[in-house]
Amino acid sequence: MGESGEEGLKMVEKDVLTQAVEKPGDGPPGLALPVRRVLSREMILLGFLLVELIVLSILSPHFLTLYNLLNTTKYFVEIGLLALGLTMVIITAGIDLSVGSNVGMAGIIVGYLWLAGLPLPLAILGGIMVSVLGGFFNGWVITRLGIPPLIVTLGTWTAYRGVAMVISQARPVSGFPEWFYYLGQGTILNIPVQFLIFVAMAVVVHLILSRSTFGRLVYVVGNNPVAARFSGVNVRKVLLEIYTFTGFLAGLSALVLISRTATARADAGVGYEMDAITAVVLGGASIAGGQGSVTGTGLGVVVLSLLRNGMDLAGMSQASGAVLTGIVLVLAVLSGEWMRRRPLRG
Amino acid sequence: MKRLTVWVLILAMALATVATFGTMAMAKQITVAMLPKVLGEPYFIASQKGAELAAKELGIKFIFDGPVTADVTKQIEMIDNYITRGVDVIAVSPNDANAIAPILKKAMSKGIKVITWDADAVPSARNFFVNQVTYEGVGKALVDVLADEIGGKGEVAIVTASLTAANQNNWIKYMKEELKDYPGMKLVDIRPSEEDQQLAFQVTTDLMTAYPNLRGVFAITSVAFPGAAEAIKQAGKGGKVAVTGLSTPKSMAKYVHEGVVKNVVLWDPGDLGYLAMYVAKQLVDGKMPRPGTDGTITAGKLGKIQVKADGEVILGPPTVFTARNIDKFDF
Amino acid sequence: MARVRWRDLMGVREVGLLLVLLGLVLVLSVAAPGFLSWPNLSGVLVNVSVVAISAVGMTMVIITGGIDISVGSILAVSALLVGQAAKAGTGLWQAIALGLLIGAALGGINGLLVAYGRIPAIIVTLATMSTYRGINFILSHGAWVVGLPPYFTALGQTNFLGLQIPAWIMLGVAVIGWYILTQTRFGRSVYAVGGNMQGAYLAGIKIPRVQFLVFLVSGLLTGLAATVYTARFGLVQINTGMGYELNVIAAVVIGGTSIMGGSGSIQGAILGAIFMGVVSNALVLLRISAFWQGVVVGILILGAVIMDSSIRASMLRAVSIHSIGYRGAAEPTDGRER
Cβ separation of A316 and B23 shorter than 8 Å? Predict the structure, then answer.
């Protein structure tokens, strides 16, 4: 099967930095189609969110109330935090499947350090350190040993969950001191505390990606790693930092989850990676790399969470909800792509 | 103009799909929302049928729905949405006793009555727990049945759900207690099957290879039991390796008639759901015994049911299904 | 037809994994009594057959640069409908055809949306994973299908030349898949679309058609896998195939297929599936505590891939790049495969 699929044929290399600013990538990579951008993915998602709000508020009188909207933000957070990290990872054309398992691992570390007699703040520090280490290990194997991110994090997806199992022997920990529950159950002006944390982290990641040199490097690495290396970008360092930071976010997500559910479980966060990836790609990030934004991801998280909330309130069964979620996901992207590809005046 | 058309089109499609799948809630009578641990298990479907029957007898508006995977965080989200919708009673089989507690307390603070059934939450987070059989009763029944089959001697193994499944872990605890009465029986391994029949099959096959002297298997989930029985059957070890466990009679009848399985242990999950609805109704009507006192309630076709001082309502002892009676049960 | 050489079958990618697998087998045959027996080994082959059949389709999808997350849900819907049909008394061949048809239809929907709707494959299949799973709950009303007739379960349980039929089906599918991928025009266009889309476009390959077809094949084979699955157990549960997609993808990528597209092989995917099967078999035979399972499997996956890549690297140093062909040429240096 040798003669087909020449990988060596490289695309004409453009100036690296202009590529990053342009954010190219409508349609299949490299296909020169006559496409002009009319609306950004963010604008389209915003429009979609409006439609969603209208439809759901017609379907349930309980949906469009201040209480419900604020209350629902609680459920954005754990997956939202992971999605922030995954946004950066996916922009570099990487993937991190281990985030959900890292949540389980970090949570169990917090729980068992605390059970072992450590004061809770120290236990929390320990849990965060382990999750950071988990992220760092992913990045280290990916950058130093040259193994593709998908395989590395598939391995650690299993392994980190395993660590949580070994340490806990599957026994959950609960009965934490009351103050700790503030993080996941408390409110400030009726706004759940964890939502404020999420917003703060989102702003931080947004500023990093859109305003800092590091952020620009993230896009460069995703767009054209070869060119990035030739122009002196330390690709390994950038990747290592991103995976490590994603680990940190997983630790934060674990804290919020333990606090909200008052329990550290070895199976906490199972399947979160898929939910987070869904939000990120709905938000316009491309798994081929180079594309994605915090605004998009944030909107993706909100669109998906409100959809689930609204369907529940409208009395739809979970099974119908699953069917509809898929259809809405396709519709959202399809309508967006259709409008984006539309010529300017036609 | 064209863009407007598209938006209208999308809106129309969304509305159409929603209208197809949605059913609007219209509350006037008592509304009870009942949550199983997970959708798609015959055990919980049987409970649903029993509960529907009772709901009809009592004029209850009945909602039955659960998460697609056995995940406590999904249950929490659903319950929070039931609170927003405003139901009178929430009856839940929680996937974690502690994790479910904060949201149940929130429900109680909003005047909603809370019942746990099949599995309990921490007692302070619910009004009553409708329990099928005590954990001890299940553990004892399983061990006694298998000991009887293999003459109280030999190596045995357990195929469980996931390692974190609370009910299973409680049963295993009491099974270990009961095994102390049979010094000839040795528990050599406990393996998870993650509610996956292929994994249950594979693990049971591998257990027989790893422990050539294995005499018995406990498959203590309704998903794992048929998988384990099939593995023993296909290995041609029916009769040599005994297997018992918890599952619905209908999914095990075939193996019982083939002689691979002699005894299936379970209670009637339909009666469990039925009882939960009677407790719900009497709770709202203020007819349940006051907390801290023993008492009894009358639950339709089930007659008198005992209520313990700690809020536990107990259905009764487990049933053992054998070749003689297994075809009489329709669940 | 070009002459098939050994080197084509066992390229650099496959040899690395093969050596790792042989090493594992060697260790196990010493450490785990009962491992090196035919009933055990053939049992492992039968156990991996369902995943391996899907992995053949998944390999093609991934080579084009796509991914199919919906296979677990396709498995569930197909198994349910095949089970219901078999219970209603359809013939064996009709049941098999039905499985293929349903799988192909569901896979075809994925393909249409990816190829002609121009939506990224990961979004499409994440969406249909959810939708198909929901459909499965609705169609089944949450009830299992039990008591399938013996003529049907015979497909999953009959021995033929010492090996149960599912393993033969797996081998058959693998050979056909290998032939299509390496010896036909279609196969070459699959590599071309994933390796260099611009080049493929310029070479006149109908890219959407190729993309549509690989998703169709992925669904079709998963439909076949569902029939085999149903016949093996004689009962269909509702949660069938939860997490199945990651097992299939793991088999494919451990087998050396690049997630970025353009390279990979069926042989590799089958070896990957067998590797995973041997590992899970070994955990029980070595009597490793179930709590350690996750850690051990994770380490073994990473270990296998790291050893595999270092074996490949040293082989590349030993042999000149030209004689091996493109597959080893673009070695990733920072974990990225482009």
Answer: yes
Q: What's the pLDDT tens digit per position in B251-297?
A: 899 999 999 999 999 988 999 999 999 999 999 988 888 877 788 88
The answer as to whether A26 is a domain residue is no
Residue of C nearest to B222 (CA): C237
pLDDT digit string, tens, across residues B106-153: 999 999 999 999 999 999 999 999 998 888 899 999 999 999 999 999
CB contact under 8 A, B251 and C34: no
> How far does C178 lie from chain A, in Å, by closest CA?
10
Q: Is the dihedral of CA B144, B147, B149, B155 positive or negative?
A: positive
Nearest to B212 among C34, C140, C281 (CB): C34
Please tell me the total count of domains within chain A. 1
pLDDT value at C194 more than 50? yes
Q: How far is A2 from chain C (nearest CA, A)?
A: 5
Inspect the interface and report whether the beta carbons of C127 and A330 lie closer than 8 Å.
Answer: yes
Task: Please name which of A332, A217, A224, A335 lies closest in space to residue A281, comparing C-alpha atoms.
Answer: A332
Check if B27-132+269-315 and B135-266 are the same fold. yes
Q: CATH code for C10-321? A: 1.10.3470
Chain B residue numbers touching C281 (CB-CB < 8 A): 202, 206
Q: Are A40 and A343 in contact (CB under 8 A)?
A: no
The 10 Å Cβ neighbour count of residue A243 is 30
Residue A118 lies in a domain: yes
Residue B83: closest CA among chain A residues belongs to which residue? A313
The reported pLDDT for the residue numbered B28 is: 53
ipTM of the complex: 0.83
Q: Tell me the domain boundaries of chain B.
A: 27-132+269-315, 135-266
CA angle C310, C312, C313 (to 5 degrees): 60
- pLDDT-derived band of residue A340, with 50, 70 and 90 as boundaries? low
In CATH terms, the superfamily for domain B27-132+269-315 is Response regulator (3.40.50.2300)
Let me know if domain B135-266 sits in CATH 3.40.50.2300: yes
The C-alpha atoms of residue A291 and residue C120 are separated, in whole angstroms, by 13
Beta carbons of C241 and C131 less than 8 angstroms apart: no
Tokens representing B40?
């798609």
Chain A residues with beta carbon closer than 8 angstroms to that of C294: 158-163, 165-166
Range of lowest pLDDT (A189-198, B55-64, C255-264): C255-264
Distance from CA of A306 to the nearest CA of C (A): 16
List of chain A residues whose C-beta atoms are within 8 Å of the C-beta of residue C247: none
How far apart CA A113 and CA A253 sit, in angstroms, is: 18
B201 in C contact zone (CB under 8 Å)? yes
- Say yes or no: B149 contacts chain C, CB-CB below 8 A: no
Residue A150 falls inside a structural domain: yes
